From TrEMBL:
Name of the protein described by the UniProt record: Small ribosomal subunit protein uS8
Complex and partners: Part of the 30S ribosomal subunit. Contacts proteins S5 and S12.
Any Pfam family the entry gives: Ribosomal_S8
Tagged with keyword Transport: no
Entry keywords, A to Z: Ribonucleoprotein, Ribosomal protein, RNA-binding, rRNA-binding
Gene Ontology terms for molecular function: rRNA binding; structural constituent of ribosome
InterPro entries reported for this sequence: Ribosomal_uS8 (IPR000630), Ribosomal_uS8_CS (IPR047863), Ribosomal_uS8_sf (IPR035987)
Family: Belongs to the universal ribosomal protein uS8 family.
Cited function: One of the primary rRNA binding proteins, it binds directly to 16S rRNA central domain where it helps coordinate assembly of the platform of the 30S subunit.
GO terms under biological process: translation
Taxonomy, superkingdom: Bacteria
Length: 131
């Protein structure tokens, strides 16, 4: 039984990225699709696709690399954990690597990056940090 599916998703992305794999697959959920959408919107991944299947759908994430094969995602870490949730207000969200990275937040307006949360003046649970 998996106790933290978000951490599993981030670990699969981290492992595929370190192996320079073109894509990675995992069980899909609305939260995972939201995180993938935020990563795509900020340019950290090429795209994602949800493949319907029985009994559960599969999320396929296409990773992105630079022209010389350098990794776009240098690190991806879980911030808020099941045992210790981390919440931030819109004005309290720090910058990651002077704006080169992002925090992904779960807000009342959906799962968004820290830039979108600041623009829409909404806070929430800090899910992960990507740079």
């Amino acid at each position: 039984m998996m106790t933290d599916p978000i951490a599993d998703m981030l670990t699969r992305i981290r492992n595929a990225n370190s192996n320079r794999a073109a894509q990675t697959k995992m069980p899909a959920s609305r939260m995972k699709v939201g995180i993938a959408e935020a990563l795509k919107a900020e340019g950290f991944i090429d795209g994602y696709e949800v493949q319907p299947a029985t009994p559960s759908s599969t999320l396929v994430i296409n990773l992105k690399y630079g022209p010389d094969g350098e990794r776009v995602i240098r690190a991806i870490d879980r911030v808020s954990k099941p045992g210790c949730r981390k919440y931030r207000g819109a004005r309290d969200i720090p910058r990651v690597v002077r704006g080169l990275g992002i925090y992904v937040l779960s807000t009342p307006k959906g799962i968004v990056s820290d830039r979108t949360a600041r623009r829409e003046n909404v806070g929430g649970e800090v899910l992960c940090k990507v740079y």
